[in-house]
Design brief:
Anti-sigma factor antagonist, 36% helix, alpha/beta, 107 residues, globular, STAS_dom_sf
């Protein structure tokens, strides 16, 4: 897993899972604490995430709210969009462009 960017936009790539969760959490929290306005999290280079990775995203979402900021997801891959819809988290998280629920393939 890698994260590059600044306090306004971060690109996450690779796998966001139990092995990379602590590092990802540290980077996200630092970006949220040190910046202002929306923090855009570009997930277009993310290969996969597990429940721990999703927990990191939700934790960053909560921390953003406490900091007076908003976490905005960009480029969410289709398989991860399905997970967000299945867990109904697409209703809570800010997703750039939204998720076209009707266009997602059924599994």
């Amino acid at each position: 897993m890698y994260i590059r960017g600044d306090h306004a936009e971060l690109v996450v790539g690779g796998r966001l899972d139990v092995r990379s969760a602590a590092d990802a959490r540290t980077v996200l929290h630092t970006a949220l604490d040190d910046g202002v306005g929306d923090l855009v999290l570009d997930l277009s280079e993310l290969d996969s995430w597990d429940a721990t990775g999703l927990g990191v995203i939700m934790g960053a979402h909560r921390r953003a709210g406490r900091c007076g900021r908003r976490l905005v997801l960009r480029g969410v891959p289709p398989q991860m969009q399905r997970l967000l819809v299945a867990t109904r988290l697409h209703r809570i998280l800010a997703i750039e462009g939204g998720i076209g629920v009707e266009s997602l393939p059924r599994v």
